[in-house]
Amino acid sequence: MKRTNNDLFPIVDREQEFQKIYNNTIEKVNYINNKYSENHNGVDCEEVAPLIEQMNNFVLNLSRVTKLEEYLSFKLLVQKILRLLGECDHDGVTPPPVDPELEPVVIKAILQNLNKKLVGELLTSENDYLITSVEYELYKNDVRVEKVTTNSASAVANFVSTEAGRYHFLAKYYWADKFKQIMSNSVIIEEEVVVPPPVEGDFPATLPYSNLWAHTVTTNGSYEITLNNTWGVIDSRLAVYLDGQLSEILDTNYTAANRGSAKNVVSTSKFPSNKDLKFVYKVTYTRDEKTNDKVTVYYKSTTGKIEIATPDGGVKYCNHPEWNPEIEYGSATGKVVFYQGFHFRHSGWASKGDSPKTNGDWSPWTMLSAAEEAAINCPGNHMMDSAGTAPNAHLEPMDLAQVKGLGTPMEKMHITYTPEWGKWGGRKYTPKISPWNKISHMQYAFVDVIPDYTGNFFTDKDDISHLTKSAADAPNGTSLNISPNIFDPGAAFSAYGGTNPFMTEYNEMCRQYPYVKPIASLGGWSRSAFFRDAAQPGKIDYFVQRCIDFIREYNMVGIDIDWEFPCSRRDADLIDNKNDLGTPRAQDDEEFLFTNLMQALRKALDKAGEEDGKYYFLSCAIVSGKTHILKSGIGVWHPTCDFISYMTYDVHGAFDPMTNHQSYLFQNPSEPLAETNPYENALSINDLIKFVTTTYGVPVNKITVGSPFYSRGWSGIFKPASGWVNPSTPGLYARTNITPGTNGTKGCSAPGTMDGGQGAGVLPLHHLNKLIKGENVSVRTLDMNGPANPHAGTTLVGTDFGYYYDEAAQAPYLYNEKAGIFYTFEDERSVEVKSQWVIDNNLAGIISWDIAMDDYGIDMHSSAATSAYPTLNQADHLLTSVIFDKFKANSLRLNYLNRLARR
Q1: What architecture does CATH give domain 706-903?
Q2: How far apart (Å, rounded) are the C-alpha atoms in residues 698 and 637?
Q3: CA distance 327 to 350
Q4: Which residue among 173, 178, 393, 888 has the highest number of C-beta atoms inside a 10 angstrom radius?
Q5: What is the pTM of this model?
Q6: CA–CA separation, 75 vs 55, rounded Å?
Q7: Is the omega angle on the peptide bond into residue 565 within 30 degrees of 0, that is, cis?
Q8: For residue range 189-243, what is the model confidence (pLDDT) as tens digits?
Q9: 89 versus 399: which is more confidently predicted?
Q10: Dihedral sign, CA of 705, 709, 712, 713?
Q11: Do the domains 215-303 and 106-189 match in fold?
Q12: Exposure on the CB side of residue 20, measured as CA atoms within 13 A
């Protein structure tokens, strides 16, 4: 016969082929029929009977059999009956042998496109066990592109070629010493592959807003997207958004180890160049292991545009505040407020509680017309309650070309403070000078915590006339509302030439360096008195809401509570700072007030984050040492924090009668602890971290430890008759021969160029390095409007100072034996050791105080700085660079490899 297009076998002569098959099987057919005749005894195999009937019907209908497959099926049928017959044979008759020429039957070959993979398989009858191996050859547009070999006809072939084109495969199957081949159907893959929809709940359909950024660079034709995280990360996923719409979810190269670091490399050719591309990491981490409190955070890449202020680029929040029943609005001002879904203009005398009305009754407030309401463009839910007066609130998105901060990712945090008072006097330090490309968090120091009479954020640091009740006089349970208030965003210092828009500059640097997290640090040494009032029942909700308003207004990503210190009473130091409030009303109940405040802030920040499509951080800075920690309540509130900063500086200073290190990693066994630490206060960083982690269960990967960028110092330090405690460290653990001063006298402090009226021996790192190099340093009153420096007029002679390093404590110091002056400080060597210790012990990072006192190559209050300020921009900072070099991602990995190599 001639082969038709439907035939799957080679061209054969049907009649000759069947005759050969029939001749080989007719003897077996006769044998089978004889064995199962009616007169046969002892054989009862019901399974065989229907097969015999099928066999005989085939023989009777030979004239209607036309296909070779049917002949082969007949042959297989006879073979099967013979096998069954052998199992049922009880009369000793041996059946004829199985035909060694029996051929496997392959029905067809199928190629399918399953989940972006081409899958090929053979469909065979039940005798596929005769096939010894199969070769699958995949063809794309009639050109072979791939080959797969299996040892079973039942095994499928998975092909990886899924580019657009027409595909088929040719199968060669082997049996005995022969082979045959069969061709599959064709499969066409279109040019554009449809991406399956993501798993429900994995990512939102549209680009989520985020004020957190993943590190993205383009190199060698690929996007490299890096996520670095020091929390307890348990999962991270990566999605692609094109023009704001979810396009694809990618597999994530994820490493746990409490760092949550992930780096993904994706070809740039994979995505169209005419669309705005964003990669978004969805990170889940555990904030509290005991309660299994999980938090989900989005990190967005910096491809395309960067949104800094609001999800829609600046119109999310209303510019007008909500009506406040606690405010005496007084005579008409034209001020617009928001109330119960509408805006009203202040058009008459309004006392406290005079609310706007919508029912037509007389009111000191006039509802805006529909046209006026439309012009305001309020989002409706009025997510923001603020005065709308911040100079840089509601920032527009900026192009990636304007972004400067695409530097190296950091595996650990370096949190530092930018002090608003850094601009005072002749210092001229403002945010534009800081090395934003080498830090992770920039905390604004400090935001006042003070009574709120106006409902607006108070912006004049030096005018505290609004404090009608002093911190000492304000009673417990005071009726005063407490609010966070910025120092001085538009402060002028015309006496030194020009103005200093501090907050404006801070906001702009945050825009240019989106990887740096701007944090509002509340309180501090001089503004912690009213924390206890803010945390009182009945007042805490007001204060917490004002905190939320504040960070929304000034585009911060979190709040740092710097309450110095709960349960610790201190009178105001009016010699150093005429505006210092002290903490004169502190009581032991502040442990619970502090706990309540942290828990209320965490709840409010999470709620605001859900509303704003952001994640808001909460942290706190607390003093080191057991005495304060035992009263802090940390065992209860630590789960509320994203990180906890221990101020492991100012541990010792001229307030002690004996010299010591102000920040040290390990306890020196030579230290006379009975005199320097009689209460076993765990003052070394190593001892402190062991204490808080074992006693209170604080996760070590939440903790940052302090590094001072300044000195503290003593005068009157001379060699005693009994000699030094350790001859290799002269001046250390030595008692001053000067009585501590009061009322502005010098006392036992060393001269300091950063000192106020009391004096503390504070030198910035640049001046310390000048002394180390043998150069002189002159001391004067720092701020012409501030307190007189008691050491003004002193010249420190650099050649009289010796540099020493305490190997046991890992801390340096300077000692002038001739003048009896001792300075304790931090340098490159000690901060490098401290940074490595943080890495090795899996801490979150380092917090430094403060960036303005790092050494950036210029005297911060010299005439050179004053004249250079207009053109002085970002400068390299010495200790910041050391920390960065230790914490940047590639350094950490190299360190790990080096440790492995040493094993």
Answers
A1: Roll (3.10)
A2: 10
A3: 9
A4: 173
A5: 0.71
A6: 9
A7: yes
A8: 876 544 445 455 588 888 887 778 888 888 888 888 888 766 677 778 889 998 8
A9: 399
A10: positive
A11: yes
A12: 10
